[in-house]
């Protein structure tokens, strides 16, 4: 195979990242861009880590079922939680067994947090361990 031929598998990750971001930003009507990142991750093995990083970079959790699923995913996939930089939690959480707090504890590189619901009470200990740029209440 001629090494000068560019295939999906040999595009540099930095270039691919720019292409993915640009392709999604060119479609302003797309209210669920994460689905496109899932599709991009299926193109080939080389694209998966780039798409996965973008997919988990910003997370919105609107219900406990999604929070539970996300918690299992982040806990069982080594390094995936490190991609999470921004999280918005908007559901009623169980104060005795907080899924929201469990998610925050898994994401050491979290920088931006949005909270809507009943998370405020138990967050002090967890938030003090994070290096957040801002919190939106």
What does this 3D model show about the protein?
The protein has 137 residues and is α/β, with parallel strands linked by helices. It has helices at 13-25, 33-41, 48-57, 64-76, 99-106, 124-127, and strands at residues 58-61, 86-91, 112-117, 134-136. The protein has a four-stranded parallel sheet with strand order 1-2-3-4. The protein is elongated and about 55 Å long.
What would the keywords be for this entry?
4-stranded parallel β-sheet; 137 residues; alpha/beta; single chain
Q: Could you provide a short overview of the structure?
A:
With 137 residues, this protein is of the alpha/beta class. It contains 6 helices and 4 strands; from the N terminus they run αααβαβαβαβ.
Q: Secondary structure elements and their pairing?
A:
Layout: H1 13-25, H2 33-41, H3 48-57, E1 58-61, H4 64-76, E2 86-91, H5 99-106, E3 112-117, H6 124-127, E4 134-136
Parallel strand pairs: 1-2, 2-3, 3-4
Helix pairs in contact: 2-3, 4-5
N- to C-terminal separation? 55 Å
String of helices and strands: HHHEHEHEHE
Strand order of the largest sheet: 1-2-3-4
Can you count the helices? 6
Q: Total number of β-strand segments?
A: 4
What proportion of the residues is helical, as a percent range?
A: 40-55%
